[in-house]
Specification:
This protein has five helices and five strands; from the N terminus they run E-E-H-E-E-E-H-H-H-H. By secondary structure, the protein is an alpha+beta fold. It has two domains: 2-75, Ubiquitin-like (UB roll) (Roll); 76-146, DNA polymerase, domain 1 (Orthogonal Bundle). Strands 2-1-5-3-4 form a five-stranded mixed β-sheet, covered by helices on one side. The chain binds FE2/S2 (inorganic) cluster (FES) (2 copies).
């Protein structure tokens, strides 16, 4: 199968029942994407698939299509919006242990790609599927709001 991953065309060969998360981490060594719950509850494994934030632990390679575009946290700095989000997270102090951060960044990216000026409630909705046990979310929401200016 041919996929576009972080802007590069990659040909991948693996069992169709392999999870996208494992394809990324094990086969492609893109270990920035984290596994938390492994069952679609925490968002640590979020990546952007064809413009939508998805839980990569819930997607099997067999559900992907030739030519699908996947952005992971490793590809963020290659995009102007991704760079901006990363800087805002640092500036706002939105990272503590960092385990949720790759997923949060990808959720923020998908949100801001679709909606350049989300309201606070829209930001909260945008990261509703991403759990953070450290920050209390306030600084994460502030970081995303900083990107709207
Ligand atoms: Fe995928 Fe938790 S590891 S949602
Ligand atoms: Fe630790 Fe979010 S910073 S889980």
């Amino acid at each position: 199968m041919r996929l576009k991953i972080n802007g590069k065309n990659r040909t991948v060969k693996c069992p169709l029942d392999k999870r996208l998360l494992d394809l990324l981490r094990e086969d492609l060594r893109l270990t920035g994407t984290k596994e938390g719950c492994g069952e679609g509850e925490c968002g640590a494994c979020s990546v952007v698939l064809n413009g939508e934030a998805v839980n990569s632990c819930l997607i099997l390679v067999g559900q992907l299509n030739d030519g699908d575009e996947i952005l992971t946290v490793e590809g963020l700095e290659k995009t102007p919006l991704g760079k901006k989000i990363q800087k805002s997270f640092m500036k706002a102090g939105a990272v503590q242990c960092g385990f949720c951060t790759p997923g949060m960044l990808m959720a923020a990216y998908a949100l801001l790609k679709k909606n350049k000026k989300p309201k606070k409630s829209e930001i909260e909705d945008g990261i509703a599927g991403n759990l953070c046990r450290c920050t209390g979310y306030k600084k994460i929401v502030e970081a995303i709001a900083m990107c709207t200016k």
